[in-house]
Automatic annotation (TrEMBL):
<dbReference type="InterPro" id="IPR006357">
    <property type="entry name" value="HAD-SF_hydro_IIA"/>
</dbReference>
<keyword id="KW-0539">Nucleus</keyword>
<dbReference type="InterPro" id="IPR006355">
    <property type="entry name" value="LHPP/HDHD2"/>
</dbReference>
<dbReference type="GO" id="GO:0005737">
    <property type="term" value="C:cytoplasm"/>
</dbReference>
<keyword id="KW-0963">Cytoplasm</keyword>
<keyword id="KW-0378">Hydrolase</keyword>
<comment type="function">
    <text>Phosphatase that hydrolyzes imidodiphosphate, 3-phosphohistidine and 6-phospholysine. Has broad substrate specificity and can also hydrolyze inorganic diphosphate, but with lower efficiency.</text>
</comment>
<dbReference type="InterPro" id="IPR023214">
    <property type="entry name" value="HAD_sf"/>
</dbReference>
<keyword id="KW-0479">Metal-binding</keyword>
<dbReference type="GO" id="GO:0016462">
    <property type="term" value="F:pyrophosphatase activity"/>
</dbReference>
<dbReference type="GO" id="GO:0005634">
    <property type="term" value="C:nucleus"/>
</dbReference>
<keyword id="KW-0460">Magnesium</keyword>
<dbReference type="Pfam" id="PF13344">
    <property type="entry name" value="Hydrolase_6"/>
</dbReference>
<dbReference type="InterPro" id="IPR036412">
    <property type="entry name" value="HAD-like_sf"/>
</dbReference>
<dbReference type="Pfam" id="PF13242">
    <property type="entry name" value="Hydrolase_like"/>
</dbReference>
<dbReference type="GO" id="GO:0046872">
    <property type="term" value="F:metal ion binding"/>
</dbReference>
<dbReference type="GO" id="GO:0016791">
    <property type="term" value="F:phosphatase activity"/>
</dbReference>
């Protein structure tokens, strides 16, 4: 059944009255869910070990565009999480694949720390605009240059690595790239192609990498719309954690069906998964 608030315990039936379906795979958000900045959320390292020990396959999906994947991985490993590079599926990775497949030359509105993930791509005479979390690089000069590329070439696509509205920093909520993408859409009359969460294709690619069908998987994240709403739109179940950017009432803002559960934190989400699997007739197993 759908849970709420603290302990995250699962019920004996799903919301439609059927027996719970065993969860074989989990897509897990990083910043805001496993950690907030350079601090792990309570009990999350031990909870991840319990989830793996139960036989639930894991992939870590992130829209983070303010740093390279290698630096992000170093951060979470330094916090005590046993996560390998092959287990991280990023919107940066998906965007690079898109640019290479379409042979595009990007004008990058992106944080300088993330630019190494795009090394080797041609950028002369840009024929597309790519927007991530640029922070200080969101200057009038840069935004105006991006708009001119789009206005001067009707075939130049506007590509949003993601369109997140806010993200959580240690001192509070900050603007994500979404407001700046919308500004470029408004100025140029374009509609951005979004690559990362909440796009169904992003979750589908991550599940393909995991070798799991949507009905056998769950998404755990602190963003009710981009993490949970996007995943549920792709056929997964979604768990909202009350950490990171979560604010009271967010669980009602998925843009679709309510989450399968709203739980205190990642450790409570793992409790919920293991309870669901126990009710389905075996923890984690096939």
């Amino acid at each position: 059944m759908a849970g709420s608030g603290g302990g995250g315990g699962g019920g004996d039936v799903d919301v439609d009255g059927t027996a719970p379906q065993r969860i074989r795979g989990a897509l897990i958000d990083l910043n805001g869910t496993l950690h907030v900045g350079d601090t792990a959320t309570p009990g999350s390292q031990a909870a991840l070990r319990r989830l793996r020990d139960a036989g639930v396959a894991c992939r870590f999906v992130t829209n983070t565009t303010k740093d390279t994947i290698s630096n992000l991985l170093a951060l979470v490993q330094g916090l005590g999480f046993d996560i390998s590079n092959q287990e991280v599926f990023s919107s940066l990775t998906a965007t690079r694949r898109l640019l290479e497949a379409r042979q595009l030359r990007p004008f990058m509105l992106l944080h300088p720390k993330a630019l190494p993930d795009f090394e080797g791509l041609p950028t002369h005479e840009p024929n597309c605009v790519v927007v991530g979390l640029a922070k200080e690089a969101f200057t009038y000069e840069n935004l105006n240059a991006a708009a001119r590329i789009l206005l001067n070439d009707p075939d130049a696509p506007l590509i949003a690595i993601h369109k997140g509205r806010l993200f959580k920093e240690p001192d509070g909520l900050s603007l994500g790239p979404g407001p700046f993408v919308v500004a470029l859409e408004y100025a140029t009359g374009r509609v951005a192609q979004v690559v990362g969460k909440p796009e169904a294709s992003f979750f589908q690619l991550a599940l393909s990498d995991l070798g799991c069908s949507p009905g056998d998987a769950v998404m755990i994240g602190d963003d009710a719309r981009d993490d949970v709403g996007g995943a549920q739109g792709a056929g997964l179940r979604g768990l909202v954690v009350q950490t990171g950017k979560f604010r009271p009432g967010d669980e009602a803002a998925t843009g679709g069906a309510p989450p399968a559960a709203t739980v205190r934190d990642f450790a409570a989400a793992v409790d919920w998964i293991l309870a669901q699997n126990a009710a389905a007739g075996g923890v984690g197993g096939g």
